[in-house]
Structure formats: structure tokens, C-alpha cells
Amino acid sequence: MAEPKVFIKTYGCQMNELDSEFILGDLLARGFRRAENESEADVVLLNTCCVREMPERKAFGKMGLLGEMKRDNPNLILGLCGCMAQKRKETLFKQMPFLDIVCGPSQIGQLAEMVVSVQRTRTRQIRIEEDAAGRLDFRKASRRSAIKAFVSIMHGCDNYCSYCVVPYVRGREQSRPPEQILAEIEDLAGRGYKEVTLLGQNVNSYGKGFAASYDLVDLLEQVNQIPGIERIRFVTSHPKDISLRLMEAMARLEKVCEHLHFPLQSGADRILQLMNRGYALADYVRLVDALRAVMPDIALGTDIIVGFPTETEEDFRDTLEAMRRIEYDSAFIFKYSTREGTAAARLPDDVPPEKKKERNQELLELQEEISLRRNRRWIGQEVEVLVEGPSKRNPDKMMGRTRQNHIAVFDGGTELAGSLARVTVVRATALTLFGELAQRGDASPGRALAHRRRQLRPMRRTYNPK
Ligand code: SF4
Questions:
Q1: Structural domains for the chain
Q2: How far is the CA of 132 from the centre of ligand 1 (A)?
Q3: pLDDT (tens digit, 9 = 90+) per residue, 382-417?
Q4: Cβ contact 231:255 at 8 Å
Q5: Binding pocket residue ranges, ligand 1, CB within 6 Å
């Protein structure tokens, strides 16, 4: 009998992408094969997100369509995992009687077994306890890229931003032990990976709760020493928890990229307070100035929510002004949607949808203008590009990312894939740098660039749990 095929569709953040890579790897190890699409699959899993209304609606819609497919193919196994599963629990079986599996994000280590169990017994499975995610061995993950990988360093969140459902569905903050993380990265390096992105809801508080004093800086120090790894990124950074020590480490450690996703959320202090973000705009701007002082070439990204309850025109103008002042390289702009169970859900969702749309559009247009201006500063400069492969839009050209995380497209052969190349930027749009190959792969020029400005003394600590 042919091996059963599995298709996983992922919604939401990088953490969900990594979880999906783990689930797929676990199923492949049990003899399943990857399906290219849902119509050729025997098992379809939706790894869901409920942080915003839109991905939740999309997952519902998708599962409805899959339910119709199941009418023609009653053996099709359908599972819903991730945050939506945790939030809605067994009610999902009532809403979607064709569903076989409901699995919360802490239980994805059990998911492959649940699939096998449904195959054997044809009985529904549900696992929504909040534990165990820290013990997952991500070395099993079936990675989408052979060059860059996500590495989970912590789970959950203790921040309770008033609009956010994550602490309720992903649980309390838990840091993974550094030895587990380092072993995973050494394994990735041994398999030729060049870039790692350390993932957590709030990586700046990594290490909270450890018996020994060990934090994100200590972890970055150790990852920076792993041979073969050329680039380190980390996401997401909560502004209230970033330290000068971390900024100095970013500037000093040559493998840590000059890129930070640093969500502001709103430029109005009143709204920031209602959001329970723990900082005012002036504090945030001071941090941005400090980051740019130690790393003048750092690229900053942000998340902004428009139409938060009670947001006035004046509040919105404050956000516009903040974005003009800060000049992000990139920004994700979201329209507020009420998330049941959060503190903000008790406030009136009183900004009309049309107004939210208008504000969203205005910020998008402003950001496009700023991104274009900032990207044009790179014209004429040589940048380091980690080459990923042929460009999707123009397969005759190669594409990769700069250390600042800009997409770069340039003339070059497929033999460059996986290497670090030097590219001279000749043109820029708001989203992409276009260039010409200046030097072929693995010159590791980022280090030369990095060493030019990194004269700070190391503050190294190694993990000692005793
Ligand atoms: S830091 Fe705030 S926005 Fe981010 S996951 Fe935690 S509660 Fe949600």
C-alpha cells in the first residue's frame, strides 16, 4: 500500500511555520509523504492563528471547504492545530462535525501519534493541555529552506498586551534551556545552514526563571561562536525589555545582523497605555536613538495597530508623526479586531470599519514612501547577500536577503545558492534592492563591515545552572 500523504497549511507567525516544519518532519519519520496540495492528500492539517480575526476567518473557511471534500472522500483525515484549537477546544467538533483532530500548540509533539490513531481507530482525538512544547526535538523538523532556519528559544508570553490573545492560548512564558538550543543550532550548522532566527513572543526576556543568570545576550554570545553559522537574527523584541547590554552585543557580535523588528503598535501615549505596552513614545524613541547610535546601519521594522478602541483622529496623527520621525525600513499595519477574552474586548470597538481602512491605507502609503527613500540610500553601495535561489518573479536572476533583511535581486547563477555574495546595488524599490554581482560567494564580507564598527568589549557569560 502506498504511504499516506499529508498536507499542512500554516496561518500566522514564524512560530507556527516552525511548528508546521516539526509536525511534517515527525509525520515523514513515520512513513508519511508530503502532498503538494490538499486534493492529493490523505491527511490535511491546518496550523492556525487567532491573533487577528482575518486568519481565524480564513482557517474556518478553509476547513469548511475541506469538510465538503470529505463528503467525496470519507477517509480523508482533517485536523486543526495551533492557537485556534487551543482557544476553541472541543467546541470545534460541534462547529465542524467532519473534523478528526483538535491539537493545541503545546501538544504538537503528540500530533503525529494522533493522526496515526485516527487512521487506526477512526475515533476523534483532542489534546489541548498546556505543557510539553519545551521538550520538542526540533532536529526532526522538515525544513522548508536548506540555508536558513527558525529556532524556538521560548514559548508563551507573560505580557498581557490588552489586545492580544497569545498569553491565553500559548500559556506562560517558558525559556528553552540553552544547551538544547545550542545543540539544535550546531546540528543545523553541521547540515550547512548559514542563518538562524531565534524565535519567541518576547525574546528580550529570554532566561527569566532560570536558576542561573543567563539571558539573550549570553545565548547570542554562544551562538555567535558556532562555526558555519554566519548570520543570527531574533524576533520579537518587546521595547520595554530591550537593554543597552543587548544593543551593545548586537553591535559587537559580528554574526548578529543589523536588523530588528521592534513593534511600536501606536504613536499615542494614551493608546499605548490602554494597550498595556509598558512604555511611552518618548521612551521608545530614546531606544531607537540608542540602537542607531551603536548600529548606524540598523534596519528597523514595526507593527502598528490602527483603530484600537477609542483611537481619535489626534491619536492617529500621533502615530503618523511617530512613523515620520522614526523612519522604519518596514512596517506591518493591522486594523484592530476584538479578540474575545482579552482586556481590550471590554472596551468599545468604536472606530468604524471605514475609518480603520482609511487609517490603514494612509499608514501604508506613508511607509511605502519611507521604505523607498531608505532603500535608495543603498544605491551605489556593496551589500552582503545570503543567496537563497532564483527569484520567483524573474527566474533568470538570483535573490537573497541582505544583513538588514532587504530582499536583493541580482544577476548570477544558481551555483551561488547558499553562499554569501557581494552585490552592488544599482536600483531600489520600496520592497527590493536590485544589483550586480560584485564578488562571488562566501567572502563573508559582513564580518569586515561588522568589525569596522564593533570595538566594544565582550561581556561573556556561559550557562551554569548550578
Ligand atoms: S508581547 Fe504583547 S503582543 Fe506580543 S505576544 Fe505577548 S501579549 Fe501578545
A1: 5-133 (3.40.50.12160), 145-257 (3.30.750.210), 267-376 (3.30.750.200), 382-452 (2.40.50.140)
A2: 21
A3: 999 999 999 998 889 999 999 999 999 999 899 999
A4: yes
A5: 157, 159-161, 164, 166-167, 201-202, 238
